[in-house]
Amino acid sequence: MHDAVIVGGGHNGLVCAAYLARAGLDVLVLERRGLVGGAAVTEEPWPGHRVSSASYVVSLLPPQIERELELARHGYRVSIISPDYYVPFPDDSALTLWGDLERDIEQIARFSTADAEAYAEFDVYFEQIAGLLRDLLFVIPPNLALADLPRWLALGARMRHWSARDIAEITRLFTLSAADFLDEWFVDERIKGALATQAMVGAWGGPMSPGSAYVLMHHWIGEVNGHPGAWGWVHGGTGGVSEALASSARAAGAEIRVDSPVDHVVVKGGRAVGVELDSGELVEARRVISNAHPITTYRDLIGEQHLPDEVVRDINRFRTRSGSVKVNAALSRLPTPSAWKGEVPGDPHRGLVAIAPSIEYLERAWDDAKYGRPSREPYVEAIFPTVHEPELTPDDSHLMLAFVQYGPYELAEGDWDDHRDAFGARVIETLAGYMPDLDGAVEQIEVLAPPDLERRFGLLGGNIMQGEMTPDQSFFMRPVLGYADYTTPIEGLYICGAGAHPGGGVMGVPGHNCARVVGRDARRSRRSAAIGRLRGRLK
User: Fold this and answer.
1) pTM of the model
2) Residue 441: is its pLDDT beyond 90?
3) pLDDT of 539 above 70
4) Could you give the CA distance from residue 124 to residue 442 in angstroms, rounded to a whole number?
5) Structural class in CATH, domain 2-78+235-319+460-529
């Protein structure tokens, strides 16, 4: 019998496995696909082209996890993407944001001296708030129960350096729209459009939607190689993260099995005692940990018949809508933005290119989606990874990986089989409006709409966060009230994926935190068993 079996070999499941194995537990990971990583994988849709199919950049993976799991020793290598953003505009001007305060102020001053002055203060404010949110990353959220009062007191002690102003600002970010938030700081619409992009990533809402200010902050709390807020390219593609995590877990003693889909969790007497695979094989375990989507975990792996009525109600209203589309393309050559007059490859090709000329542009893209239409003028964020790693493709060809908003899961007319090719063409057309020579360079294209993300990666609704990041689905209410501490109503069953605190992104923190809870419970069980044996001998 295993000490723990983990359902799903996504990156959070691998983090959880590595920590538990290092603590001395016998751990088995069961992954339904033929490779580990969940949405953090490198695949080959075309011969010789190694593509980060879904997630494609990193920032949120904390240095603590990198260090403790010795990921560098297991092949993890990441290069900073610089500039952070290259944002072209219709008039053939462009804003380049470097993640370097002096250079960014200089760039912004080309558009607005007032905004350049404001950006210096904005940068200080952002880093302060990001530091507060980092305080909460590794917190096991207390539940709203009297028994959790000591944990609430411990949380209060952890936050004792927070001022009343800090608490007020965090509250504002959870309720304020990104548009209103940026209006408080800046005047030029181009500057606000460039800064609003991260308020949309993975969200079912636009930059004018309440709460989008927090989504903006969530994506800016990470760091790469000691550089706060930076994005990084993992060598080998995003699958390089997962392979390093899997190697670390195996080195600690964990076993990982692919092509092993789990049908359900075996529950006896209100306790999880193992899992049954689709093949009918029974795997016994003292504890079961699900890296699957919370709805999949509760409805499919457990079954509503084993759950309290209020939990069934809460999980049934857990929102997991999405407008995210991933577009991957093989190119014969790198495109050149009209606004770029330098060498190729240059700044636009080494950083992230973002089509976000204004907040109004971004909000119009959302207007289409909320009525079931793919955005006619979508937000597009593109990277050219072969500039960082030419070995990803054969010969002198290139890759372009684009994250796009919005393509709603449910369409008002037809389905994605009717719209997939047209939407892919629209994304290329949108980019070609700023890079005229792109259209003729596209040799292959892959469009992963929300239903595709759901089928391939288990992301229900196509939501890349395993559930919307809204105030009522965060911290002690994520995924459901009463079980935000990675536990479930089933004794011995836990959740370790992005559907738990602190949410989505390639960060591994939910897996880390869940391992702490499982390890704590395992130690308690061993102590209780030892005490029981001692009492038996004394009798």
Assistant:
1) 0.95
2) yes
3) no
4) 41
5) alpha beta
